[in-house]
Design brief:
Order of helices and strands: HEHEEEHEEEH
Transmembrane segments: 137-157
Strand content: 15-25%
Distance between the termini: 32 Å
Bound molecules: copper (II) ion
Organism: Dioscorea zingiberensis
Mean pLDDT: 81
Number of strands: 7
Subcellular location: Membrane
Main location: membrane
Helix content: 25-40%
Membrane topology: Single-pass type I membrane protein
Radius of gyration: 22 Å
Length: 161
Amino acid sequence: MTIFCGSILMFPDLAFGKEYVVGDEKGWRTGVDYAAWAAGKEFFVGDKLVFIYTTPNHDVYKVGNPNFETCTVPEGTTPMITGADVLTLTSPGKKWYMCGQDGHCSAGQKLAITVQSQGPVPSPIPGAPDNSSASGLSSYCVTVVLLHVVVILLVAMRPFT
Ligand SMILES: [Cu+2]
C-alpha cells in the first residue's frame, strides 16, 4: 500500500491533462458522428481537445448552445483555422464547437461535451472542495506516508538502552 501510495504522490501528472484528438483518426470533418465519439468519454479541466483538419476546408468555432443548435456562426467571433488546433479545457460545464463552413455544422460537424471540474488528483487550490473519491484516496495516501515518516523518525530517535 505504501509503495502504491508513493507512486500516486510522485507521479500525479500521469493521471492529469489528457489529450483528445476529436474524431480520432477521422479528425474534424463532415460525415463523422461526434456525439458518438464523445459518448462515454470523461473530460476534465486541464484536458486538451485537438482538432485536426484540412485547411481552408474547415475551421473551429467555440459557440454557445443557441448557435450550436441552429448552426449559426456567432458574429464577431474568430474561428481557429490552423488545421491542428489545440484547445485546453479551462473551465467546467457544457462546451459547444462547430465548423463555420457552409452546411458543415448542419451536416454533423459539431461537437458538444461536458467538462468536469476535477481530475483524479487533489485540487491545487487550497481550501477548494475536495469530494472525489480519487482525491480522497490521495489524501489517505498522504496520511499513510506521513504516518510512516513519523514512525521511522520516532524509531530512529528512540534512545538506545
Ligand atoms: Cu467543416
